[in-house]
C-alpha cells in the first residue's frame, strides 16, 4: 500500500514569503552590518540595536537555519554568502536590488491573481519610471545590477570579437558590461546608449574603473531615437521588459544600426517550453505583474523575429546560470 505524501513540499513553497521577510527585516535592522564587525550573541545584538531579546533570538535562529549565519560559542557570525553580499559598503553588496524586490516587485506580486486573469500588469507605464528618481536608490540598484551582470560581462568578453571594430550596449545603464568588454578588447569602439539621466552615473562609474574615455555614452530613448551605428548591438535584459510588438521595433532598429556583416546579441532568461527552469518562469511572471506586456520568451520565438527583421543567421548558447545568448548576424 502506497502511503500518502506529507504536506512538507507544499508548506516549504508556501513559506518562501516568510523566509524572504526574514532577510528583508534583517537588512533593515542592520543585522549583517553589525555582525560584520565581529560575532555577537542574540542578547548583545538586541542590546546594541534596542530590539526585543526574544524576537532577536528567533530572527537570528532563522538566519542560521537559512544558511546566512553561523554559530559557535562566541555567538553568531556571518556565513560566507552574507559576508559577501549583505554587508553595506562591500563591493558585491546586493542591498539595492533587494530593496527593489521588497519595495517594488514583491508588492506587485500581490496582484498576480488578477494579472493571470487579465494578462495586465499591476503597474502601468514604463516599468523603469520612478526607479531612478532618488540618487541613493538609483546608485544602490545600479551597484547590485553590476554585481549580477559582471559574470555575464566576463562571458561576453570571451565572444569572438576579432571581426568587429565597434559595439553599443543598448540600455547599458552606467556601462559596467561595456567596460568589461572594452577592457578585454581595447581595440573596440565601445558605447552605451541609455536615458539622459544615467549619464552622470556612467561618468562616475567609468572614473572609478579607471576607464574614462574608453567607453562613450550616448543619451536617448531607444523607442523615440535611432540606435547608434555599430558593428554589434547588444540587448541585455532589455527585450523581456516589453510586449512583442515593441520587441519587433527594437530588432528592426538594431538591423538598421548594425553594419553589414555585423551582429545583434540578445540575452535574457529565455524559456524552454519543454524543460522550463523555475528561475526563468518566475522571471516571466515578474514581467507579467511589473511591466505592461513584458515576458520571457522561447528562443524559437526570438529566432523567428530576428529572421523577420532581416538577419541572415541566428545561433543560441547558454550564458550565466539560467540565461540564453542569441547572436544574429546581418549579411555582409
The average pLDDT is 94
Q: Strands across the major sheet, in which order?
A: 5-4-3-6-7-9-8
- Biggest sheet: strands, sense, closure? 7 strands, mixed
How many helices? The count is 14
Number of strands: 9
User: What is the overall shape?
Assistant: globular
Tell me the fraction of residues in β-strands, as a range. Answer: 15-25%
Overall helicity? 40-55%
Distance between the termini: 67 Å
pLDDT below 50 for ≥5 consecutive residues: which ranges?
Answer: none
The secondary-structure element order is HHHHHEEHHHHEHEHEEHEHHEE
Give Rg in angstroms. Answer: 22 Å
By secondary-structure content and strand pairing, the structural class works out as alpha/beta
Structural account:
The protein is an alpha/beta fold. It has 14 helices and nine strands. The chain has helices at residues 8-14, 16-29, 31-35, 42-49, 53-65, 80-85, 95-109, 112-118, 135-157, 176-184, 199-209, 244-257, 278-290, 299-309; strands at residues 69-72, 75-78, 166-170, 189-194, 215-219, 230-236, 258-268, 313-319, 323-329. The strands form two sheets. The chain has a seven-stranded mixed β-sheet, sandwiched between helices. It has a two-stranded antiparallel ribbon with strand order 1-2. β4, α11 and β5 (215-219) form a beta-alpha-beta unit. The longest helix is centred in the middle third of the chain and has 23 residues, at 135-157. The radius of gyration is 22 Å and the shape is globular. The chain starts with 7 loop residues before the first helix and ends with a strand.
